[in-house]
Write a structure and sequence with these properties.
With 113 residues, chain A is of the alpha+beta class. Chain A has five helices and three strands; from the N terminus they run ααβααββα. In chain A, α2 crosses α4. In chain B, strands 1, 3, 4, 5, 6, 7, 8, 9, 11 and 12 form a ten-stranded mixed beta sheet that branches. In chain B, strands 15, 16, 17, 18, 19, 20 and 21 form a seven-stranded mixed beta sheet that branches. Classes of the chains: A alpha+beta (113), B alpha+beta (894).
Chain lengths: 113, 894
């Protein structure tokens, strides 16, 4: 039951995955950091329930796109840091390209109207 | 793809190892996030409590997120299944009484089924014990329409020329062999020995891929033409038993049916041919005329003589369908030789007993027995289903509670089914052990009950993966059959009533499950009635068989069987042999009569032919025997009218006949037939006497017309001898053997008490009766357990009601009547149905076995009384216990 509700369509999930990969492209980060970065960059347009980030992080970890490591945060708390693996980098490059083509196509379609 | 799956699995396995760690990590991760967020909000000026609250709101449902992540990291479905199994195991362990009864019932049901199946498997499903046996198929011809066919063995066998056509014209076999099965030959030695063997095509060993352990196999030149190849390959067993495992036997000649064969090879140990009766030797089939002298057949020249069995080894990659299509073309071409008829081919993987007639017989009988054991399993299933139903109503409240707090019905059904499957598997495992034990028991029982002189069988009856698969499928089916209905029933609770229910109530579901229980009991009783009645009918048949008067004397009579034809005798020498032997026999001590008969009474073989009776236009088939006058004296068959043949009539084979009373009754209707004539072909036979009815050809039937003809000169080569002696059989036997060997030292002879022939007729009834009695007893025990269980349950459910009734002044007789009526109603319905069904099928049974009458009053009276009596007792005991409860206690009874 719950599993279905959590899958808000491929586009949205794909988007979230892409955002996470992008966020981690700058270096290792914990979940809260990823959430903050998304908020900051997207100027709060993409309002995700912050909790939804974690299943996505774990899914990417299980797919081998992310590596995870427990470390200490800036305020000395135990935190789980995620970083991109080689596969993650490749995936990010592919998805970025894919996304660019798609958004370009959508933009052209909207312009012709 | 695969690597990502592997990665996932490894990470999951790691997580599985540190299950608690995973939960703690998830907690930590979320807590860290919430703390950071709250700290930030606080820094923006919220008060701490509001900041924490807001942080949680922004985060969403924490439990849900954790659940999702956990599901990702673990094998949820597998684990919940495992939880179900553990739960089921616990709940079974908590009810040891229930579990033991249920497991026992299933184990018996599955065990007996698997045991019987392992025998059927060994007899008819197991492939031949040869290398790459999967590639080897048997080919049978089935003829349709009118065509003339000579038969030596079975009609499905092929002729020599047909074999050559199939062999040269096919495109599917790497090799096709032919052999004459069940060839009997006498090995000449100090004590002549009867052997089974085969006359085979010279590629026999090559196609089977069996290499002799010493010497060589046949080569093509051995089979070059009729009469070539006087060579023999002997079995390892014969080599050890008759030639002391002496390697020097190779190259020496042995005599089979008086023809010399040079031993060229010894078959590897364990190879005994491709028939269930082990072969001791193999000769090239071109030697058939030499090894079977005196058979009136032209084995190699007659194109329509059925005598060869075919086995072919398929080329790699050729399917059965391709084979069928390819051989059908050849078969159609062969059909052109005999207009008016055609042949179809049956091609199947080669097994023992694989020829069409054997195959359909084995599967017919096996099917009936499996159906009977299936019925026993059905009773066992009904028992367990009933137990589960009773337990489900005890767990009614638990299930209703779980449903009401949101468990899905499917989830509960899955759990209940897991429980019944677990039960089935425990039972099935125990059952397989029983099967292993019972197949040995059953097969040694069967072997012990085969008639004397029956050759040992080369069957491997030990369970293999076929049997295992059968037991497995049966177990799953069983678990489903007895589990599904109770599971559906149990989870269909009306929550409202169920939760309020106290102890017992008139809730709809209770009534429904009551009806279900009654149906199950009815089915059990009906099935049990059928099995018991069948068993009783068979036992009655056996009893009649044991006590029937065959109408002739058996005591003190020995039967001597000789096969002069196979020993290369002709009519003239046979007559000399017979008269010399009779002279010696009559002078033996204690012997007071020697008679000749082509077939000894109740022999497994008998003659019949068409006779023309006065006033009739058509020939009527009647059984007959060629006998000497002494036949009637030593068997003490009296004459009703007329008298015996004279010695002279017998010696010359005069045209005279003696008919049985039944023949006189049927064709002369009370008039005196003596002096009248009947015709047999061109012969006019004068009737000289009417003999009292005796069961010469077959046992256990109403007297049928029978005709005795004199054993004249033409019969001397085939007659058997009957000797009556006052001394014990063992002495007579030795004396008879001595006498035969004095006349011809190499003559194989078989001496048996005539009474043994009765055994041949009784054996099938005895085997079937014992088997069905055992199954019937098992069915009775299971069904009565079922009735008892239902009765106890019904009584215990009504204890409070009984208390009220007694308190209000109901007599114990009324209450008892009430309880018994409740349980006995489905029992009676089941009993009536069972009797009706059995009455319908008993005519089938009576046709199969001797001495059985379909509506035997004793069986149809005793069995229902017995079954109903035991059922009444089984329902009386729990009812009495319920009534003994003190009314005050009963009223408080929850």
């Amino acid at each position: 039951m719950t599993a279905k509700k959590e899958n808000p369509g491929d586009l949205l999930q794909g988007t979230l995955d892409l955002l996470i990969l992008k966020a981690l492209a700058r270096g290792p980060q914990h979940g809260y950091g990823v959430a903050e970065w998304i908020h900051a960059i997207s100027e709060d347009i993409l309002r995700v329930e912050e909790g939804a980030l974690y299943p996505a992080l774990h899914r990417l970890e299980l797919r081998g796109l992310l590596a995870a490591e427990w470390g200490t945060s800036e305020n000395n708390r135990r935190a789980k840091y995620y970083s991109l693996t080689a596969a993650g980098r490749k995936e990010l490059a592919q998805e970025t390209e894919h996304w660019r083509r798609l958004s370009g196509a959508v933009a052209r379609i909207l312009q012709t109207a | 793809m695969i690597s990502s799956w592997l990665n996932k699995t490894i990470l999951r396995l790691k997580a599985l190892k540190r299950r608690r760690q995973l939960d703690r990590d998830l907690d930590d991760e979320m807590a860290f996030h919430l703390a950071m967020r709250a700290a930030k909000l606080e820094a923006l000026g919220r008060d701490p409590a509001a900041a924490q609250h807001a942080a949680r709101r922004r985060f969403g449902n924490i439990g849900n997120v954790k659940e999702q992540s956990r599901a990702m990291w673990t094998f949820t479905s597998l684990e919940s299944w495992w939880t179900d199994v553990r739960y089921a195991g616990r709940s079974l362990a908590n009810n040891p009484g229930f579990t033991i009864v249920a497991v026992l019932a299933i184990a018996l049901g599955i065990g007996v089924n698997a045991g019987i199946f392992s025998i059927l498997n060994g007899v008819a499903l197991r492939l031949l014990p040869i290398p790459s046996s999967r590639q080897v198929v048997s080919v049978d011809q089935i003829f349709h329409g009118k065509l003339h066919r000579n038969v030596h063995g079975e009609t499905t066998l092929v002729s020599y020329s047909e074999y050559l056509s199939y062999r040269s014209d096919n495109h599917v076999f790497s090799g096709l062999l032919a052999y004459e099965p069940f060839l009997m030959a006498t090995l000449a030695s100090a004590s002549p020995k009867q052997l089974f063997g085969a006359a085979a095509s010279c590629n026999y060993f090559d196609v089977l891929q069996i290499a002799p352990s010493a010497g060589r196999a046949f080569v093509d030149s051995d089979c070059a033409a009729s009469g070539t190849g006087a060579v023999v390959v002997i079995s390892d067993e014969l080599w050890h038993a008759s030639f002391a495992a002496d390697p020097a036997i190779l190259g020496k000649a042995i005599r089979l049916n008086r023809a010399a064969f040079v031993v060229i090879g010894i078959a590897p140990p364990g190879f005994t041919g491709t028939e269930p009766i082990p072969s001791a030797f193999w000769v090239p089939f071109t030697m058939q005329p030499s090894i079977e002298p005196g058979r009136e057949m032209d084995a190699l020249g007659d194109a329509s003589l059925s005598w060869l069995a075919l086995l072919g080894r398929l080329r790699p990659g050729v399917s059965l369908e391709q084979t069928r299509a390819d051989l059908a073309v050849i078969s159609a071409r062969l059909d052109q030789r005999h207009p008016g008829g055609f042949a179809t081919l049956v091609i199947r993987p080669a097994t023992f007993l694989g020829r069409q007639e054997e195959h359909s017989f084995v599967f017919g009988v096996g099917g009936i027995i499996l159906a009977a054991t299936g019925l026993v399993l059905l009773i066992a299933c009904a028992n367990v289903a009933n137990l589960l139903l009773a337990r489900a109503s005890a767990r009614h409240k638990e299930i209703a509670l779980r449903l009401s707090i949101g468990a899905s019905r499917w989830r509960l059904i899955r759990q209940l089914l897991t429980e019944s499957l677990l039960l089935a598997f425990i039972g099935g495992a125990c059952g397989s052990v029983i099967a292993f034990w019972s197949f040995q028991g059953i097969s040694s029982f069967l072997l012990a009950h085969l008639p004397r002189n029956f050759p040992p069988l080369a069957l491997n009856l030990a369970p293999d993966w076929h049997v295992l698969a059968y037991a497995f499928v049966l177990t799953v089916l069983t678990g489903m059959v007895f589990g599904v209905v109770p599971a559906l029933q149990a989870t269909r609770a009306e929550l409202n009533t169920a939760l309020k229910e106290e102890g017992y109530g008139a809730a709809g579901s209770a009534r429904r499950s009551g009806r279900l229980r009654n149906t199950l009991v009815g089915v059990q009783v009906a099935v049990c009635m059928i099995l018991l009645l069948a068993a009783a009918l068979l036992m009655r048949g056996l009893y009649i068989a044991q006590t029937v008067d065959p109408g002739f004397r058996m005591g003190g009579v020995a039967s001597i069987s000789l096969d002069l034809r196979s020993q290369a005798y002709d009519d003239k020498r046979a007559a000399v042999f017979q008269s010399q032997l009779i002279d010696r026999l009559v002078s033996l001590p204690g012997v007071d009569g020697v008679a000749q008969a082509e077939h000894a009474p109740l022999d497994d073989d008998h003659n019949w032919t068409g006779f023309l009776f006065p006033g009739e236009h058509d020939n009527i088939d009647v059984e007959f025997d060629n006998v000497s006058p002494a036949f009637f004296t030593i068997l003490e068959i009296p004459f009703v009218r007329g008298g015996n043949f004279t010695e002279a009539e017998s010696r010359t084979g005069a045209n005279v006949a003696i008919i049985s009373e039944a023949a006189a009754r049927t064709h002369w209707h009370g008039a005196d037939p003596v002096g009248q004539t009947i015709r047999k072909g061109k012969q006019e036979l004068q009737i000289v006497g009417v003999a009292r009815d005796a069961q010469i050809a077959r046992l256990g039937q109403d007297p049928r017309p029978y005709i005795y003809l004199p054993a004249g000169p033409e019969q001397q080569i085939r007659v058997q001898l009957l000797v009556h002696s006052a001394v014990p059989f063992r002495q007579t036997e030795t004396a008879i053997r001595g006498a035969v060997h004095m006349v011809d030292p190499d003559m194989p002879v078989d001496v048996t008490p005539l009474a043994d022939n009765l055994e041949i007729w009784r054996t099938p009834s005895r085997i079937v009766a014992s088997l069905s009695a055992a199954l019937g007893a098992l069915a009775l025990v299971l069904a009565i357990t079922g009735v008892y269980g239902v009765a106890s349950y019904a009584s215990s459910r009504r204890i409070r009601e009984i208390g009220i009734r007694v308190a209000l002044g109901a007599g114990s007789r009324d209450v008892m009547g009430l309880l018994l009526r409740q349980v006995m109603r489905p029992v009676l319905v089941g009993a009536v149905v069972g009797i009706a069904v059995c009455a319908g099928v008993s005519s089938v049974l009576s046709a199969m076995l001797f001495g059985l009458r379909s509506y035997d009053p004793i069986a149809f009276l005793v069995v229902p009384v017995l079954l109903l009596g035991v059922a009444l007792l089984a329902s009386y005991l729990p009812a009495r216990r319920a009534m003994r409860v003190d009314p005050v206690t009963a009223l408080r009874y929850e």
